[in-house]
Target: 2-C-methyl-D-erythritol 4-phosphate cytidylyltransferase
Amino acid sequence: TRFWIVIPAAGVGKRMGADVPKQYLEVAGKPVLQHTVERLLAVHRVSAVMVALGADDEFWPELPCSREPRVLTATGGKERADSVLNALCALSAHAADDDWVLVHDAARACITPADVERLMEILEDHPVGGILALPVTDTLKEVENGTIKGSPDRSRIWRALTPQMFRYRALKEALESAAKGGLAVTDEASALELAGQSPRVVEGRSDNIKITRPEDLPLAAFYLERQCF
Ligand code: CTP
Ligand code: MG
Model:
């Protein structure tokens, strides 16, 4: 079985509010997406990286990684899940049903190759697959109209990160059936859960942040400059 990477990179970065999509903002000397692709290509067992791009993306060809032999592109869709599904369809010419696919957000540029390798090693013999995740550290509140209704048991709650690693065919079918059922899934694991599967969690690193708002940029720059891989 081979390992493929899918990078949804077709978002507009509304919460960032910049004049270009956030994956093209420069952080620590390079565009966010260049960091992300480089770090995933540094994982030697990866056969290729499939990047889902916005239909009118004029920035991608400017990135050095766009000319790498192990990099392929597809056109993204309306929601993140549509972009991932389009990328999986484009992979159908290359991937076998049982191959592993690791879906990783373009906006998570601080991913370390070592974390990706650890996820691959821990899950490669697992029947379903799983995700990098982190136990929450804050106390949680369930809130209705500004009023606290309860405090869920924190020891059972983890935050979902990416990569999320599943078998090619199982992932494609789970996303297709969620889409058909009109169910909005914000990550791949949710789609597998809806299909009755029980994915694993593998503890990730807290510096694997999703660059979302302007204040995330200096934090990402700090992590990117400090990590050596
Ligand atoms: N993404 C995508 N296709 C979409 C929407 C999002 O490929 N239709 C990608 C984004 O490019 C990003 C990842 O999914 O790398 C995670 O999404 P998010 O952080 O929400 O990015 P945006 O949707 O671009 O940001 P916002 O929600 O603030 O607009
Ligand atoms: Mg979004």
Observations:
- DSSP finds six helices and eleven strands in the chain.
- The CA atoms of residues 92 and 142 lie 42 Å apart.
